[in-house]
C-alpha cells in the first residue's frame, strides 16, 4: 500500500516528505499535490522507486472467429 | 532599529490553510483584503501593502503589525518589524506558524488521496504517515 511519510520539526516548522510504494511518474503526481500547497521544495531527490517502471505484461487475447 | 522586514525564505501558498494556521497559533483578530496598509508606528517603518494583517499587540508583536504580502507567484510571505521577531509568540511565531500550516497541508493531502492518517511524536519531531 502506498504511503507518504511526513516529518515536521517544531523547532523550525520545516517539513520533509518521503513517498514510498509508488513507482514512476505516479510518485511525481503525489509530490505535485503537496507542492501545490507548500510551494517548490528547497531540496528534492528522486528515489530508486521513481525510476522504476511498473512491471506490466502485455495481454493478448485470441479473437474467436 | 524598528523596521518592517519581509521573510523571503518563508512562503505559504494556500490562503485558507494560512488563515486556519494563524488562528491556531493565537491570532484572534485577522484583517483580510487587498492592498491593506500596515500601521506605521515608528518613523523607520516604511509603507507596506499586504493581503493579511495581524494588528499590533495581538501575539506579542508590540512594535508593529504583522502582514502577509501576496507575491506575483501567488505565495504569501510574512512581513514584520525586525524587533518583533524575538517578541511575537516569544520569538516562536514563524516556526509555530509553519508547523501549524504544514500539519494542515498533510490533512488536506490525506483528504485528497482518501488516505488514513497516523500521527506520532518521536523525539523532537512530529511524524505523520498517510496511507492510501
Model description:
The complex is a heterodimer of chains A (about 60) and B (about 130). Chain A has helices spanning about 25-40, 50; strands spanning about 5-10, 15-20. Chain A is an alpha+beta fold and about 60 residues long. Chain A has one domain (about 5-50). Chain A has a two-stranded antiparallel ribbon with strand order 1-2. In chain A, a hairpin with a 6-residue loop joins strand 1 (about 5-10) and strand 2 (about 15-20). Chain A is elongated, with a radius of gyration of 17 Å. Chain B has one domain. Chain B is about 25% helix and about 30% strand. Chain B contains two helices and seven strands; from the N terminus they run βαββββαββ. The model of chain B has no long low-confidence stretch (mean pLDDT about 95). At the A-B interface, strand 1 and helix 1 of A face helix 2 and strand 7 of B.
Question: What is this structure, in a nutshell?
Answer:
Chain A is of the alpha+beta class. Helices cover about 30% and strands about 20% of the residues of chain A. The longest helix of chain A has 14 residues.
Task: Report low-confidence residues of chain A grouped into runs of 5 or more.
Answer: none
Find the biggest chain interface. Answer: A-B, 22 and 31 residues
What is the ordering of alpha helices and beta strands of chain B? Answer: EHEEEEHEE
Distance between the termini of chain A: 41 Å
Quaternary organisation of the protein chains: heterodimer
Secondary-structure blueprint of this entry?
The complex is a heterodimer of chains A (65) and B (132).
Chain A: E1 3-8, E2 15-20, H1 25-38, H2 48-51
Antiparallel strand pairs in A: 1-2
Chain B: E1 4-6, H1 15-24, E2 31-37, E3 49-54, E4 66-70, E5 76-81, H2 93-113, E6 116-122, E7 125-131
Helix pairs in contact in B: 1-2
Amino acid at each position: 500500500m502506498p504511503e507518504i511519510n511526513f516529518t515536521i520539526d517544531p523547532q523550525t516548522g520545516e517539513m520533509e516528505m518521503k513517498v514510498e510504494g509508488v513507482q514512476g511518474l505516479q510518485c511525481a503526481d503525489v509530490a505535485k499535490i503537496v507542492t501545490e500547497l507548500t510551494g517548490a521544495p528547497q531540496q528534492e531527490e528522486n528515489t530508486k522507486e521513481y525510476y522504476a517502471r511498473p512491471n506490466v505484461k502485455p495481454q493478448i487475447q485470441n479473437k474467436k472467429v | 532599529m524598528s523596521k518592517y522586514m519581509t521573510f523571503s525564505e518563508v512562503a505559504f501558498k494556500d490562503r485558507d490553510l494560512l488563515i486556519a494556521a494563524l488562528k491556531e497559533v493565537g491570532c484572534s483578530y485577522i484583517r483580510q483584503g487587498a492592498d491593506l496598509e500596515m500601521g506605521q508606528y515608528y518613523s523607520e517603518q516604511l509603507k507596506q501593502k499586504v493581503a493579511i494583517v495581524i494588528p499590533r499587540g495581538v501575539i506579542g508583536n508590540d512594535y508593529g503589525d504583522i502582514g502577509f504580502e501576496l507575491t506575483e507567484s501567488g505565495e504569501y510571505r510574512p512581513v514584520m518589524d525586525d524587533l518583533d521577531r524575538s517578541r511575537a509568540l516569544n520569538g516562536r511565531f514563524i516556526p509555530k506558524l509553519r508547523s501549524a500550516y504544514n500539519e494542515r497541508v498533510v490533512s488536506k493531502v490525506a483528504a485528497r488521496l482518501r488516505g488514513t492518517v497516523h500521527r506520532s511524536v518521536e523525539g523532537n519531531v512530529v511524524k505523520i504517515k498517510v496511507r492510501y
